[in-house]
Amino acid sequence: MASTVDGRKNFASSVCDFLVKYGFDGVDIDWEYPVTGGDPGNAYSPQDGINFVLLLSEMRNQLTQLALDINPRQIFELSVAMSPNTQIAKYTDVAAISVIANYIHVMTYGKHFMITNSLSTLNKLIVPKPSIGIFDANNLTHYSAAEALQYYINRGADPEFLAIGATFSGKAFKNVQGNFNQANMGLGLNFTGTPAVGELPGMIDSGIISYNGIKQLMSSATVSKSARQLRNEYGYMDYSSSSGVEPSSSGVEPTSSGVEPTTPVGPPNVFSSYYDNTAKNNVLYNPSSKVWISYEGIESLVEKCNFAKANNIQGGLFIWDISQDRDNTLINQLKGIIN
C-alpha cells in the first residue's frame, strides 16, 4: 500500500472518510516495522523507511485539506507509534517524521524476548550504568525507556512532541527455575514457558495478562514495603484486597533490598508483590506455582510521569491499552498525578 502513489492516496482518503463518519479527531499510525518486517510473514522492503515518510506526508496533506473543508479551526492530529529498539528505529527518518506528525509515541513497554529464556522486567526506565539494562535479543544490546527517548531526541525529535509508552498489561512466565529472593526478584532466572489463556485470570494471549487479571492476583498478594510506602504517601489503593483492607504487616524489618515481607492473605498458594526500585517496575511471584509476572503498576507509572516532567517530554504518557484496566483504577490515579 505505502509503496505506490495510488496506494498512499487511497489509504489516506479512507482514513479521512472514517474520521468524518465516526467523529474522530485524529489517527495514530503503527507500522511494525519498516524494513525489518515485524511479525513473521510480513512483507517488507529496503524502501519502507522512505515510503513511510511519503505515506505520512500524504496523510498530513489530506487531513489538512479535510479540516479546511469542514472547519478551518478544526485540527486532525496525526501521530506515529515507534519502536524503542534502535536497530528497528534506525530505518526511519525521525527528523522528517517529526516535522509531519503531531506526536511520536515511543512504545517503551512489553520488551520481553522469549529467545533468551531468562526473566527481565517489562520496562526499565533508568539505566544507572551501561552494564545494567534489559537484554534485547534483536541486537544483543542493553536499553531502557530513557535511552530510547534520548535516541529519538538525538535524531531530531522535539521532546515537546514525544510521548512515553506505558501498558496496562503484564508479561507472565511459568516454570521459573532457580533461587527467587527479595534481592534479585527473579531477574535473570530461567523459565520454560508462559501461561496460556485460561491459566490465570485476565490472560489475553499466551504470556500476556491484563491489569484486570493482575488485580485479581493482587487481592491476596503480600506487599513489598516500597509499594506500601508509596501508596500511603499518595493515597493509592493499588495493592489492597477487594475489601479495601491492606494485608497486615508481619513486623519483619526491611531487608537490604528494601523489601519487607508481609503476612499472606488467603490460601498459601498466593503471589507476593515486589517493586524493583532500579528498573522502576513491578513484579508478582508465586513460589508454589513458579509463575513470575512483570507489569507496570502505579509505582512504575508514577516514575514515568515524573521522568516526562523532568525531561520536558510534553507528550506525556500514552497507554496500551485502556480496556485492560476495566474499572479505570490506574487511569484515575494517573489523572491525579498529572494534574
TrEMBL record:
SUPFAM superfamilies tied to this protein: (Trans)glycosidases (SSF51445)
Keywords of the record: Carbohydrate metabolism, Chitin degradation, Glycosidase, Hydrolase, Polysaccharide degradation
Domain GH18 residues, every copy: 1-339
Single GO molecular function: chitin binding
UniProt key word Membrane: no
Residue ranges with Low complexity bias: 241-254
Ranges for region Disordered: 241-267
InterPro entries: Chitinase_II/V-like_cat, Chitinase_insertion_sf, GH, Glyco_hydro18_cat, Glyco_hydro_18_chit_AS, Glycosyl_Hydrlase_18
Family per record: Belongs to the glycosyl hydrolase 18 family.
Name of the protein this chain belongs to: Chitinase A1
Lineage: Eukaryota, Fungi, Fungi incertae sedis, Zoopagomycota, Kickxellomycotina
